[in-house]
Amino acid sequence: MALYDTIGQNYAKTRKSDPRIAKALVNLLSVSPPATVLDIGAGTGSYSLILAQQGYQIFAVEPSRVMRNQAIQDLAIEWIDACAEKIPLRDRAADAAIIILALHHFQDYQQAIQEITRVTGNGQLIFLTYDPDAISRFWISQYFPSFVTDVRSSFLPLSQLIIAIQSATGKKAKIQKFPLPCDLTDSFAAVGWSRPELYLESQIRNGISAFAKLNSAELAKGLTRLNQDLKQGEWDRKYGYLHQQKCYEVGYCFVYTTS
């Protein structure tokens, strides 16, 4: 919560819902409107709002006041000031749950998954997460080496996540990869995979937790080197082929339960 009270000041401007992520999310949901969906770590509610507009009823759980205060209000969304590990809702209060790039911020992921399962009963769980094994293959780690350490210490290996989900729910969990579009509108960590200049914008970086965790020396060194490589054509020489791709498999995926 403290992290996002700090970096979340302009979150609603940079972390807008992406229509491709929203479409995949709706397609994966096994329940139909007006079912109730629990959005854990809802942030400013960009994906809660999309589902509400589809006719779902939403419990948006978010511990950061700074984030909640930026949310667009909707009658179908009930905001709850709470963490994933302790949700003030009755058993089976929701029919399904979504956890969009939030799992790595939970204090106790096992307790959180058990608590989410309690509130959803036999309902479906859908996580959008990141495969930590992929970070060393992403060019950004060449400019900010600490990203590798941070990602590997923050994100659960997919095999471990699946075991935790299946243990808590008694259901099978599947993985669906999500290659990032080149014009991604939700500016999370890999938003600049083909648009490296985005990382030179402080507003973009300020909405990405991995940048917030960097020490100032590594941040300054990495930004200087990236800026120079872009001006001198070195980035294009190494990674310019990415400009020709509409999508890029960089490690993001949905992990979801099936009946």
What is the CATH topology assignment? Rossmann fold
CATH class: Alpha Beta
What is the makeup of the main sheet?
7 strands, mixed
Number of strands: 9
Look at the helices and sheets and give the structural class: alpha/beta
Specify the number of helices: 12
Helix-residue proportion: 25-40%
Give the second-level CATH assignment, the architecture: 3-Layer(aba) Sandwich
Radius of gyration: 18 Å
Q: Report the portion of residues in β strands.
A: 15-25%
Overall domain count: 1
Quaternary structure annotation: single chain
Mean pLDDT, to the nearest integer, reads 94
Low-pLDDT segments: none
**Largest sheet strand order:** 3-2-1-4-5-9-6
Describe it for me?
Helix 6 (109-120) crosses helix 8. Strand 1, helix 4 and strand 2 (57-61) form a beta-alpha-beta unit. This protein has a 7-stranded mixed beta sheet with strand order 3-2-1-4-5-9-6, sandwiched between helices. The model has no long low-confidence stretch (mean pLDDT 94). With 259 residues, it is an alpha/beta fold. It has helices at 2-7, 11-14, 19-28, 46-53, 65-68, 109-120, 146-154, 158-169, 202-205, 209-212, 216-232, 234-239; strands at 36-40, 57-61, 77-80, 96-100, 124-130, 172-177, 180-181, 247-248, 252-258. The protein has a single domain, classed as 3-Layer(aba) Sandwich (Rossmann fold).
